[in-house]
Amino acid sequence: MLDMKKLLYSLGILVFTACTPQPQAIEYGADYCDNCRMTIVDQKHAAELVTTKGRAYKFDAIECMVDYIQQSDKVDFALILVNDFTQSSQLVDAKECQFLISPNIPSPMGGFLSAFHSAEEAKRWQAEKEGKLYNWEELQAYLSQ
Amino acid sequence: MFLLLPKFQARSIELCPTCTLTSLQEAIQIANPGDEIIIQAGLYNESNIIVDKKLKIRGVGMPIFDAQLEGEIMTVTADSVHIEGLEFRNAGRSHIKDLAAVRIQRRDYFTISNNRFINSFFGIYIENGKHGLIEGNVLTGKAINEMSAGNAIHCWYAEDLVIRHNICRHHRDGIYLEFVNNSVISDNLSEHNIRYGLHFMFSNDDSYTCNVFSNNGAGVAVMFSKRIQMLENRFEYNWGRAAYGLLLKEIYDAEIQYNIFQHNTIGILLEGSTRLNYKYNVFKRNGWAVQMSGGCLDNVFTQNNFLTNTLDLVVNSRVNNNTFDGNFWSEYTGYDLDKDGQGDVPHRPVKLYSYVLTQSPESIVLLRSFFIDLLNFSEKVSPVFTPENVLDNQPLIQAII
Predict the structure, then answer these.
(1) Which of B58, B78, B97, B208 has its CA 20 to 30 A from that of B392?
(2) CATH superfamily membership of B8-330
(3) Is ipTM beyond 0.85?
(4) Is the pTM of this model over 0.90?
């Protein structure tokens, strides 16, 4: 009886974790961008989308991910992740980030766009390198022009 | 007395291992603008040389500048600098900065010719420059993977460059252009690079002629540019999952003529590219000759030879107003009864099997099977799945020589 319960419980956990979308690690130098097909090498600017079904789309630059979102007819993205500029290859939630568009910080696809998880870091880099700060919604509005 | 001397009486300053002057930086310091510095053969362990005057720096017998992996070798901060006949070895590398063997920093009218670059991270780096000539250089890197390699010739924000007769090997990208306009890239050989033989973005009004791009890890990828000419180039031996003879992404108003695309996984991949004319090209023995996806309009393919490719054409975009009339397709099985050199029945270049393949790449194992031939044949007889309007109305009976 106890065994059955344990079995059902562990099966339940298994099913639950299988269905929860997880971010997939980006293999730099091997994976390629699902928008522009260039190999992902820049650890400060890569980004990732995970759908509710768990499929991960990887991008070599944040501007590529925004372009992909705007061009695709899917709306059910469970996770929208970007690399924090100050901590390369650490994927963080885009909605919690500040985005800096600065002519002095290039990004792989000419968007000059970088993401910062910490608002102080974002302001510090903006002071040093000039540019304008956006949050995720403002960024999407700006880039859709 | 000095004032009576004509200003443009240029001196010649000589540098050699056994002369009083053995350092190029010293020679530059004592030189006047307009002088010539002649460097005799020998080994000069010098780096971080700043060229801050208009000078002609010329090597005799290929003198070697070895940075021993420390810093850039030459940084040019003046207009009208001429660098010729030198060998640059072992320039420094860094994960944070893009270190180059020779960098032109916001300057114009430069010439970098007939030099050799061995084991650089970035070879020649043009950082904001106009009216420059990069000619006859040989750049051999030691790139192992994309992450730890720089580009052989890297140009960022430039105008009116001529890049010709260079050989670029074993770097990340052979020739990389970003925001480079009104330039001519011709007669270069770019091969065995880890990523792209040629990569340009946001670079308009450029022409690429008579280059060879072969055996590069990802082929050639060009993006977001307008009014491009690509003539008489060869794109060959680019194999792999993400390798393209030529990837054209968001390219507008281009002429792609007289090129050879051979032995590539995909000859040309088109994405979002509009108003391109493809004429007199040869697609030979590629996996796919042409893959078209994602909103490509007004592309005209005519007078091309499609010879023995596994699959000639796949079209993935929903809208199609591209034309494919007047090409030679080795797969064409029609007839020409009125002997006008054109087939009497239109040719449908898209096979149903190529759609199956793009949806599930594993079905490649069925490639030469009878079942697939049957599938393609029945689709040819009455097209149901493949686009109705993708056809060649005047398929040529003979290949164009």
Answers:
(1) B208
(2) Single-stranded right-handed beta-helix, Pectin lyase-like (2.160.20.10)
(3) no
(4) no
